[in-house]
Specification:
alpha/beta, Rossmann fold, about 325 residues, 12 helices, six-stranded mixed β-sheet, about 40% helix, globular
Length: about 325
């Protein structure tokens, strides 16, 4: 299955509009040129003092940063509700950044999604999104996941995996871990069309080890089974019991996951982040993410080490959510 080819075909049908606040980054402009050429999405760029070196296109809008001023009073009012001592000058300093202004445009339905992070940090991207866009109705947790595909020479070439959370929550509670599992599983199915089989990972399989740190993984699994009865999930599982059928037959013979998991939920950010980079660097996988989930509107975070291809892939993803 060529995931990104399918996502691109769907994106063209969906015809979404995506905001790129970092229009001064050459990687972003290279990606935008390709996105427009292939008609993957319509694009909004935010112009700062620097001239944007890109040809005119019917599906491209360029908005000057100075237009933030017409939203300043509304932004100041909303900020003052949560931070009573904030001044109009502080609010203006916040809103005059391309990232904050891009989120305001998204909130006001100028676009369907926003992609940033080639220059801004993950903290900047998420803080602005949570402050301006807010959480999805009924949701309490913002998290992320990575999608993994493999080159044709890999033994896993026909497989697609999701890892969560690898980029947002350092030490999630059992309830947050359950949110991560449900959100990641639902988005995995939405993007791939594949039924999720979700494993709550640990250093123990069904009581093979004892430690207080295991409690939240076990509890997260129980909460998820109560909240999402139709989700195929299992835990707590060591990675080999979740991934290798022969090992599962020995360690988890009667479990719901028999070495056939495709969504892997990590107990904390240390484990998730390390695992995703090992999978990418040693395993040779193609990683797309972090794909942010849980916000009222789609906002995606890039790695500051990304290239134009990564930005194009994220555009394919966000246009399918």
């Amino acid at each position: 299955m060529n995931l990104y080819k399918q996502l691109e075909q769907n994106a063209k049908k969906n015809n979404r509009t995506i905001i790129f606040p970092e229009s001064y980054d050459a990687r972003v402009l290279d990606a935008v040129k390709y996105i427009l050429q292939k008609k993957i999405a319509k694009v909004i760029l935010i112009r700062t003092d620097e001239k944007i070196k890109i040809d005119d296109h019917n599906d491209l809008d360029i908005i000057d940063i100075d237009f933030y001023k017409q939203y300043l009073q509304g932004y100041y009012g909303s900020r003052k509700l949560k931070q009573k001592d904030i001044t109009i000058e502080q609010a203006e300093k916040e809103l005059s950044s391309p990232l904050a202004f891009g989120n305001i445009l998204l909130k006001n339905n100028f676009a369907d999604g926003l992609i940033a992070g080639s220059v801004y940090t993950t903290t900047d991207v998420l803080r602005n999104a949570m402050r301006i866009i807010g959480l999805k109705e009924g949701n309490k947790t913002v998290s992320s996941f990575f999608l993994f595909t493999f080159p044709k020479e890999s033994i896993h070439r026909n497989k697609i995996f999701a890892y969560g959370d690898c980029g947002v929550l350092p030490n999630p509670t059992a309830e947050q871990l359950s949110d991560i599992a449900i959100q990641t599983s639902e988005n995995f199915e939405k993007l791939t069309g594949i039924t999720p089989r979700t494993a709550f990972l640990s250093f123990s399989t069904k009581g093979s080890a004892k430690d207080d740190s295991l409690n939240k993984v076990i509890e997260a699994y129980k909460i998820t089974k109560e909240r999402k009865r139709d989700l195929v999930c299992d835990g707590e599982l060591q990675f080999d019991a979740a991934f290798v059928p022969k090992v599962a037959d020995r360690k988890n013979k009667d479990g719901a996951i028999q070495g056939d998991a495709n969504v892997f939920i990590f107990p904390d950010l240390n484990a998730g982040n390390i695992a995703y980079k090992i999978t990418e660097r040693i395993g040779g996988a193609f990683a797309t993410g972090p794909i942010v989930q849980g916000l009222a509107k789609p906002v995606m975070d890039l790695s500051r080490g990304c290239n134009a291809d990564d930005i194009v892939n994220m555009t394919r993803v966000i246009s399918n959510l």
